Amino acid sequence: MTIRFGVIGTGAIGREHMRRITQKLLGGEIAAVTDIDLSAARKAVEELGIEARIYPEEELLADRSIDAVIITSWGPAHEASVLAAIAAGKYVFVEKPLATTIEGCERIVQAEEKIGRRMVQVGYMRRYDRGYQALKSVVACGELGSPLMVRCTHRNAAVDERYTTEMAVLDTLVHELDVTRWLVGDDYAEVQAVFPRRTKYAHEALQDPQIFLLRTQTGIVITAEVFVNCRYGYDIQCEIVCEEGTVSLPAEASVEFKHDALHKRAVPQDWKLRFADAYDAELQDFINQVERCNEPQGPSAWDGYLATLAAEACVRAQKSQGWESVTPGISQPKFIAGRV
Length: 340
Ligand code: NAI
Ligand code: NAD
Ligand code: ISE
Fold this sequence. Notes:
Keywords: NAD, Oxidoreductase. This protein is α/β, with parallel strands linked by helices.
């Protein structure tokens, strides 16, 4: 059976996901597309040369021939689309963040809870990256002893004028907030933000770079740097320091140059290339599960809720510059496996 997808939001990543489902992955087709700007949806369909229908979101969700939706609109629009899709009985793959507010995430967790089974997978694709998976298995096997500290770096080459200080958390740091608790198997207790000197390349309203300190419930301390105008490219690093050794994210495969007395290596310029295999793997897994009428197995609405919960504490910490606690207001639904 081929899964018929509806795509909501045809910006940068919406078009990327449409292309990978059409040209690379097995078992899915893009059958319907919408965007708040319908001409953007039409352009995306024409560029890809597919037959998908183009209509407003309400009609897309009412279309019984659509099995699942991919929500790739901007973050603040996710909640309304996820809730409407669950109500229409569609499986949902939603890009991160699940929603930009804690209350919005709670409403989504509760909507799934009413149905009593998972319908939602969140696009925290790093869990499907082979480097992160290798890191997790080293920590889990216990060979290095318990993890004590984690050092993360998240750098983008540049951002545009619409990118704000809060987006450094809600749009960018959320990846570390999700993947680090998954790596070390522990939840966050408190967070703090520290602002270094600003780069001259940040626009006036943006604090860049930023550093976040996170303490987990068992006392692991994570330092996470977000620097979104680093100029030289897309650079993601992670080192876990344990009692008897350290383990680091492997450098991605890229050519090395030896030329003119220098030894150089190419740096990816954005997320599209750096995590291409992980995006393929997360969507293929989603398709495979939906095809078998199974619940999605990737990051859950509960994972999305916990990432936004920690993100909201980080936004408070940006303002207070003190420690802020991370306290869930709802409990984990029983049908979501009890893993961190
Ligand atoms: P974008 O700005 O390029 O595209 C967003 C699209 O959504 C635009 O075409 C816009 O017209 C449309 N849109 C906005 N509100 C809408 C609504 N209510 N209904 C329908 N369409 C709507 O943004 P981009 O970079 O594609 O990001 C989209 C989402 O993907 C964000 O949630 C972002 O966090 C996530 N993302 C995830 C990445 C990852 O590594 N997992 C990488 C890049 C983006
Ligand atoms: P984008 O701005 O390029 O695209 C967003 C699109 O959504 C636009 O076409 C916009 O018109 C449309 N849109 C906005 N609100 C809408 C609504 N209410 N209904 C329908 N369409 C709407 O953004 P993007 O870079 O493609 O990011 C989109 C999402 O993907 C964001 O949630 C972002 O966080 C996420 N993202 C994730 C990764 C990742 O590494 N996982 C990378 C990039 C983006
Ligand atoms: C973008 O939305 C992503 O998710 C990228 O992975 C991240 O590096 C970037 O900062 C975000 O804007």
